[in-house]
Every structure is written in C-alpha cells, then in structure tokens.
Amino acid sequence: MTRVHVVVEGQTEVSFVNQVLAPALWARQVFLRPILLGVHGHKGGRVTYARVRHDVMVRLKQDSAVYITTMLDFYGLGKDFPGTPLPPNLSNLGNATCIEQAVKQDIIAEAPTLRAEVRFLPYLQLHEFEGLLFSDPAGFAQGIDQSNLASQFQSIREGFPTPEDIDDSPDTAPSKRVLRLCPSYRKVLNGMQAAMAVGIDAMRRECPHFRNWLDRLEELGV
Questions:
Q1: pTM surpassing 0.85?
Q2: Which residues pair with 2 in a beta bridge?
Q3: Distances from the Cα of 109 to the Cαs of 1, 41, 132, 212, in angstroms?
Q4: Are residues 118 and 142 in the same domain?
Q5: What is the dihedral of CA 131, 219, 112, 101, to 10 degrees?
Q6: pLDDT at 81 over 60
C-alpha cells in the first residue's frame, strides 16, 4: 500500500480527489488523501508558494513513508513561485513543467535528507479544474443538467489542441467561459457532478499533462 497526500487549493479539488481520482488508483494500492492548503482557520484561498512550501515540508517531515503531490491551478498562481517569471514563448505545457521542476528542486534543496527527489511529485493543473471537464463536452453539459449547452461546450473544446490549452487570457479561463454560458454554475457542486459524468478515462485520454501525472501516481503502486 502506498499513501499519497495531495495538497490542493479548494473544496472542489478535495471532492475531486476523494470521489474521482482516489477510486481510480485503488486497484494499484495507491491511496490518496487530499490536504487543503493552509493552516487551521486559514484553509484554501490564495495560492502562494510560501503556503505550498510550508505544507509540503510539514508532510515530508511528519511521515517518512508518505508521498506528497499537489493539484494546484496554473491559472492564478502567486508570483512568488520558483521558475517565475517564465521564459518567453513556452507552450502551456512548458510553462507548467518549468514551474513544477523549479518547485521540486527548491524542496529537494530544503530537505536533502527527506528523499524529496523520490517522495515529492509536484503537479500543476492546466489551467484550472474546469479544463478537465471539457474532455467530454456532452458529458460536461449533461452533468450540470444543461444538455442544451453541449454544442457550445464542444465549440470551445474544438478551438484548442487539448482541454488543457483552454485559456488565452484572464477573461477566458475555462471557468469564466462556463459562467458566461451558465451563470448558475457552482464550482464545488456542479463541478463535481460534471467530473463524475465526464469520467477519469476521458480526462486521461484528452489531457496529456493530467495523464502523465496519473501515470506517475500509478507507478507508486503495484
């Protein structure tokens, strides 16, 4: 059995880990536990590297047998993250990978005796949770009880190489696009309904960066 703590930024990600991601890994004897970013009384909210670094270090020190990963939105990351400002002209994947690698190196340097090079697997979601939901536009629309939006969700999806590329300005992040079409959309409740309808297989098939993360988590198991 391999235990993995997943540092997340909000209740949506907590629910996603518990209800969608964790069950997909049980067969490999990999057991995920979401950890909401921040200390008691100040959980969730703005994602700064100081907060992430603190939580990762605490988990590495508390239990030498546990692995640590993250599920944080690339969209809206604090500017204090290692690897920023980003080099020009990188792809979306290149941007996320650059920061992930810089974060890992920083944690390794801070904890040279805690095997962070093996136990810490940073992951940034491109660009935010809702991007995953565009892996199956019809399933997304059905999951939020708005089947009439399926064609519009499909049109958004077809405008980008992958669902992870959906974000070409601060006003057009995946969630902003959804809210323009469905003002009643609620991230925690409706987002989880949609995630269950879309399913992990579609997300894995359509989202290469997400797929790579799942592969790495599976490799921790049997």
A1: yes
A2: 30
A3: 28, 29, 32, 24
A4: no
A5: -30
A6: yes
Claim to verify: residue 108 and residue 175 sit in the same structural domain: no
Q: Is the pLDDT of residue 222 over 80?
A: no
Compute φ and ψ for 33, nearest 5 degrees: -130, 115
44's tokens: 């969730």
- The pLDDT score that the predictor gives to residue 214 is 97
Q: Is 74 helix (H, G, I), strand (E, B) or coil?
A: coil
**Taking CA 140 as the corner, what is the angle to CA 90 and CA 197, rounded to the nearest 5 degrees?**
115
Q: Same domain for 12 and 122?
A: yes
Residue 184: HSE in the Cβ half-sphere, 13 Å Cα cutoff:
4
- Distances in Å between the alpha carbon of 13 and those of 34, 75, 88, 215? 8, 14, 30, 19
Domain count, the chain: 2
Instruction: Tell me what the pLDDT averaged over the chain comes to.
Output: 93
Tell me the Cα Rg of the chain: 17
Which position has the token pair 């994947």? Answer: 93
What single-letter amino acid sits at 10? G
